[in-house]
């Protein structure tokens, strides 16, 4: 399915497309097929069978449906892993190549230290995190990625209203902040490294929903899902999709955007 040599953009886009299709299409179709087979098993009738024989035949059909589902899920899991590994290998190779020069790395760290001093002064003066990110250059964005989560965690404890996504009872979640910074970095850097960052972000947005969806199908194959559990699994998958794509809304500095999600479909 994917190249075992040097990976191309085509390989990565194919892998990401496969993950999205598993999440939004194939898993949905598989659940429909299983539901149909399960209904056929539970409602099967044969006038030539007594009650005991009918029950045995229904149990056999249900076991066959679950075995088929388990096999299909196992295949889908293998494909999802291969696809995710393809994206990771590409992004890690490109990002490692970009940071291979130790002298350049040292100079960058010095610039980033100064950039953080300037960014922190802006934050201390009342500028919102989103405003600082929106106007930051590459060095400042890299510095923000390292320092901003700790800074905000401290500030949220003092002032819970700093970000609408957090209340006094909730721990600070750095993920939307880091994703916002990474999106800005990918845009600013551009080229191969920027594209690799975008691919990594795309993977981070789709993979959690795929994992939750396949987990629920494995549970279904074990016969441990009823209608309530299926609804809960669908809601969990949608929530995971939203959380994986959340960012700070740069046009509304105190808000958090759910961003585009891979799609709300049954888990």
General description of the model:
With 267 residues, this protein is mainly alpha-helical. It is 74% helix and 1% strand. It contains eight helices and two strands. It has a two-stranded antiparallel sheet. Helix 1 runs parallel beside helix 7, helix 2 runs antiparallel to helix 7 and helix 7 runs antiparallel to helix 8. The chain starts with 8 loop residues before the first helix and ends in a 10-residue tail after the last strand. The C terminus is likely disordered.
Please count the helical segments.
8
Beta strand count: 2
How is the largest sheet built, in terms of strand order? 1-2
Q: Catalogue the unreliable spans.
A: 164-169, 251-256, 260-267
Largest sheet: 2 strands, antiparallel
Which percent range describes the beta-strand content?
under 5%
Mean pLDDT over the residues: 87
- What is the element string, with H for helices and E for strands? HHHHHHHHEE
Helix share bin: over 70%
Quick one: overall form? elongated
């Amino acid at each position: 399915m994917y190249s075992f040599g040097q990976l191309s953009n085509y390989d990565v886009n194919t892998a990401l497309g496969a993950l999205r299709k598993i999440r939004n299409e194939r898993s949905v179709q598989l659940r429909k097929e299983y539901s149909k087979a399960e209904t056929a098993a539970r409602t099967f009738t044969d006038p030539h069978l007594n009650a005991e024989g009918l029950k045995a035949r229904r149990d056999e059909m249900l076991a066959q449906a679950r075995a088929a589902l388990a096999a299909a899920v196992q295949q889908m899991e293998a494909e999802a892993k291969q696809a995710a590994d393809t994206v990771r290998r590409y992004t890690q190779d490109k990002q490692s190549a970009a940071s291979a020069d130790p002298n350049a790395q040292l100079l960058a760290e010095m610039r980033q230290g100064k950039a953080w001093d300037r960014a922190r002064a802006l934050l201390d003066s009342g500028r919102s995190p989103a405003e600082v990110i929106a106007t930051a250059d590459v060095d400042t964005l890299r510095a923000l990625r390292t320092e901003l989560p700790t800074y905000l965690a401290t500030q949220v404890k003092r002032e819970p209203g700093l970000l609408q996504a957090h209340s006094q009872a909730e721990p600070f979640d750095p993920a939307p902040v880091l994703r916002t910074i990474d999106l800005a970095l990918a845009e600013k850097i551009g080229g191969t490294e920027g594209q690799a960052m975008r691919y990594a972000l795309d993977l981070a947005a789709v993979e959690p929903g795929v994992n939750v969806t396949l987990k629920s199908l494995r549970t279904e194959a074990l016969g441990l899902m009823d209608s309530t559990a299926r609804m809960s699994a669908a809601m969990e998958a949608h929530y995971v999709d939203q959380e994986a794509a959340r960012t700070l809304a740069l046009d509304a500095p105190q808000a958090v955007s759910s961003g585009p999600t891979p799609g709300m479909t049954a888990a």
